Amino acid sequence: MYEIGNIRIADEVVKTIAAKAAKDVSGVYKLVGSVVGEVSKILGKKKQTNGVKVEIGENECKIEVNIIVEFGHPISAVAKEVQKSVLNAVSEFCGLNVAEVNVYVQDVKILDESPIEEKEEVAEEE
Length: 126
Fold this sequence. Notes:
42% of the residues lie in helices and 26% in strands. It is an alpha+beta fold and 126 residues long. The model has no long low-confidence stretch (mean pLDDT 85).
């Protein structure tokens, strides 16, 4: 096979693929970005890749994903599944060797807070 030129995949492409793969994992509430990303979101500049950072070299890349986990899901299991999902998706769609997928769990989201509030009300009545 002849080499006819270079192929360069933009960072945003890898971020988009990694973000989609991470969001699809059961137990991931959402991705969270940096302070700058959160301020941009408030100002109406919502990016689907907030919470994902990539460093791309010649043939490999490093990826960081910041997530919030839904309460009730084992945090370490969700994080490991995010690692696997991101690694597989980026490897398959981009053909890059993924050297690292670092997952940072920033928070836990309690989806249904009403039972906790009811228990607090009962305690106050006693």
